[in-house]
Design goal:
Among the domains are: 122 residues, no CATH class; 52 residues, no CATH class; 54 residues, no CATH class. 35% of the residues lie in helices and 21% in strands. It has six helices and 19 strands. Strands 6-7-8-9-10-11 form a six-stranded mixed beta sheet, with no helix packed on it. It has a five-stranded mixed beta sheet with strand order 15-16-17-18-19, with no helix packed on it. A three-stranded antiparallel beta sheet has the order 3-4-5, with no helix packed on it. A hairpin with a 2-residue loop joins strand 4 and strand 5. Helix 1 packs antiparallel against helix 3 and helix 1 packs across helix 4. The longest helix has 38 residues. The radius of gyration is 70 Å and the shape is elongated.
């Protein structure tokens, strides 16, 4: 139950008590006022007057016992007075309650007064230890600042930048320094000032070559090594070193002679001008300034290439046993392809001797076509189908026969050049 509900229950009780007291006080005040008002009324004179007005004639005719009449009047007066008092009290009570309840929000007034009184009381009230249950607190809007926390141990502490999962004390913060009971795991570490390490230093990564500590260690090692080297030490280890180089090899990334690079990584230096390399891998670029020979077959000299010859006679000279084929320039704007040593030249396609050039200057063509017109040789008049315009030469001419025939299409031929 929260404070608002508790205040409402207290207010309900106070309102009931106030209503009861008000009803009692109103009844008392009305009774007193009625009694005072009734006491101020001369009922006897009023009744006598009323009775005299109504009963004058009757009274005048009757024999009245004055004492008896007075007694009756007194009894009637008491009844009337009681009736008037009761009626007046009821009317007054109803009127007061109507005025109170219709014009005054008694419940709200009492609630505010009770709430003010509770607040004033709570400001100076000291709650006993363990007197407020946690369920009575409204935690949704509850805010506790760091300045309000003093002492004690906070279990499972967590914040935006801290996640405490330890089960024992791992770090102690003192005026003299910070004591860490276990390992420190960090993505990076930057220390300003002197660092003292009691124990071994294990570095799994690399030390940058440009760092000051790397350079200092290197310089110190070189200096220390130089200071401890002497001729006797060098001679005692030189044979071991040379033998190891001879058997295991020498792994160097860069070799220089007289300041010129001989080897740099996988590259030979440009200062190497003479070598006897007998085997190379796949070459992507090769430049030669001078004669070159490849497998005793390809010979390259200035402006000449020879295949199977070391003395090419043309720009390109190809020898196959005793046959030589040359390609080059015959004269200005004239190219030359031929056999300079009086040998026959055959131009072939599909294993056919399409063109035969003899050393005597004759040319033999097995089948010839000139600008779409086909030429052939036959032993007798042709009777087969051939494209229009095909020329068939007579291989066996005689007196009175034709030199040849020309195709007219559809196996029709016309002879020409009659020999007479």
């Amino acid at each position: 139950m929260d404070i608002a509900n508790q205040v409402d229950s207290i207010v309900e009780g106070l309102v009931r008590q106030i209503q009861t007291k008000l009803d009692s006080q109103v009844n008392q005040i009305v009774t007193v006022k009625l009694q005072e008002a009734i006491a101020a009324i001369d009922f006897e004179n009023k009744l006598n007057w009323l009775a005299s007005v109504k009963l004058d004639n009757l009274i005048a005719e009757l024999q009245i016992d004055q004492e008896l009449v007075n007694a009756k009047v007194d009894s009637v007066s008491d009844i009337v007075v009681n009736n008037i008092q009761n009626e007046a009290r009821t009317l007054a009570t109803n009127l007061v309650q109507q005025r109170l309840y219709s014009g005054i929000d008694l419940k709200n007034i009492v609630r505010e007064a009770a709430a003010d009184e509770i607040r004033r009381t709570l400001q100076d009230f000291t709650f006993p230890a363990a007197s407020i249950p946690a369920s009575a607190l409204q935690s949704q809007d509850l805010t506790i600042t760091g300045e309000q926390i003093r002492g004690g141990i906070i279990s499972r502490f967590s914040s935006t930048g801290i996640d405490d999962r330890s089960t024992a004390v791992q770090m102690s913060i003192l005026d003299e320094g910070v004591v860490i009971e276990n390992r420190v795991i960090s993505m990076g570490l930057e220390v300003k000032g002197t660092t003292v390490l009691d124990g071994d230093v294990v570095i799994n990564g690399d030390i940058p070559e440009h760092s000051a500590i790397y350079k200092k260690i290197l310089e110190h090692s070189v200096t220390q090594t130089k200071s401890e080297l002497n001729q006797e030490l060098f001679e005692s280890y030189s044979s071991v070193i040379f033998n190891n180089i001879r058997t295991e090899g020498l792994d160097l990334n860069r070799i220089t002679i007289d300041g010129k690079e001989i080897v740099k990584g996988n590259q030979l230096g440009y200062s190497i001008v003479d070598t006897n390399i007998q085997r190379l891998g796949l070459l992507q670029d090769l430049r030669v300034d001078g004669p070159a020979e490849i497998f005793s077959t390809l010979h390259v000299t200035k402006n000449r290439i020879g295949i199977n010859t070391v003395e090419p006679t043309a720009a390109l000279s190809i020898w196959d046993q005793e046959v030589e084929l040359g390609m080059g320039k015959r004269e200005r704007d004239v190219a030359y392809i031929g056999t300079p040593r009086g040998q026959r030249l055959i131009v072939s396609a599909g294993k056919n001797d399409n063109l035969i050039i003899d050393s005597d200057g004759s040319v033999k063509v097995k089948s010839l076509e000139v600008d779409g017109v086909r030429f052939m040789a036959v032993d007798s008049a042709p009777n087969f189908t051939a494209p229009v315009g095909t020329i068939a030469w007579n291989r066996k001419p005689a007196h009175g026969s034709s030199i040849g025939w020309v195709s007219l299409g559809n196996a029709a031929w016309a002879k020409f050049g009659i020999l007479s």
